[in-house]
Hints:
Layout: H1 4-24, H2 29-39, H3 43-53, H4 60-77, H5 80-92, H6 98-114, H7 119-131, H8 135-144, H9 148-160, H10 167-180, H11 183-196, H12 200-213, H13 216-223, H14 231-243, H15 247-266, H16 274-289, H17 293-305, H18 311-327, H19 332-344, H20 348-357, H21 361-374, H22 379-390, H23 395-408, H24 416-432, H25 437-449
Amino acid sequence: xxxxxxILQATFVLILAGMSASAYFLxxxxxxxxxxxxxxxxxxxxxxxxxxxxxGIGDQAFAREILVRISILCRYIGDREKFLVTVKxxxxxxxxxxxxxxxxxxVAGDFWRFDxxxxxxxxxxxxxxxxxxxxxxxxxxxxxxxxVYEALSEYEEAYDSGVDLTEEEMKSAVRLARWxxxxxxxxxxxxxxxxxxxxxxxxxxLFTVCVALGDNERALQLASQVEPKTRDxxxxxxxxxxxxxxxxxxxxxxxxxxxxxxxxxxxxQDKTSDESKKLMTELVYLYWKNxxxxxxxxxxxxxxxxxxxEPKLMDDALSASLHLWREKPDKLENQERVIRIARNMGKEAxxxxxxxxxxxxxxxxxxxxxxxxxxxxxxDSLKVAVEIACxxxxxxxxxxxxxxxxxxxxxxxxxxxxxxxxxxAAMELWREDSDNRENQERVIRIAxxxxxxxxx
Length: 456
């Protein structure tokens, strides 16, 4: 039987249960289970029960209360990751507890320091920093993690919300916009900064940006305020006046920009450096604008020797050499310049056409000969080679190409002029040695290809 002591203990427990029954039994079963686990120090089980109690519950106040309990238990067992997740959930539910927020920020910072490249960990740090209203820290943190666009967005958000940015903050925003290489963003922040505080350097920069964007109207408004000091300034002014067809002013500024560029290049000792190559590339553009086509070609060829063989530069050099050739097409130096550059670009077909255009048939046939021996002379090129050979005085040359072309010449080509030329050349060879069976067969083969069966 039970002793008096046991009966008293049981009675005491029942009394306590009765005192709290009205509160206890109103709670969900999972919460009552969680309370029990807490009472016996089974904290992990208590946390699991609390989590289960949150499922399907729409009462935010109840959810906040349970999550606070979970955060406390996380501290008991040292589960920092679960603690951070719980604090973030409380923030989503608009629970405001400065001490809990500071604790969450410390944990987020510790996790981030362990792996600074993890974007999710970075976002956790930013969440707490933004909640504390520390915009400067947020921007510095974003920049430290190479998130420039987001850092600029912080300034954008502050500006749009009516925050009066300081002059230093405006300059910082301009600097970030410059780093993004987005000219529209750069222009927008320069305009804002100049509205806040006029600045000659920023005005010059805004002018350059407007020219680059093609905003000639705004650029012309700023032009009178710009005192050119650098090559970029002179070039921007030249480009502006060139775009509005003021060729005289454009020419003056292009000439000054070229002079600056030449001076800068002369000061560089290592001509193979990236800075030297960059300046020479700029010079190609300026020489072109100033009509110095020989200088364009020479500069591009120098860059090629330095391993800088960009397609745009090569196109510029070819265009410049063709311009010089058109001025004096019979000058051999001008022709050779075009051929040299075209070959450097791998435009062998262009070279042959250019040689033919300049009636340098012998040189053109040498190229066709080389291609034939290598086995990659296309049918169209073979046709041209035969046409050229038929115009040559060299009988051996004519014979060689006629023999090659006779095998390829077919009715499919439908080229009466070529067929007639080939036939006439074959007849000429036959007349010189009419008993030669090879000469006879050549005439017959070409005549058959022409469909002239009666003649055969």
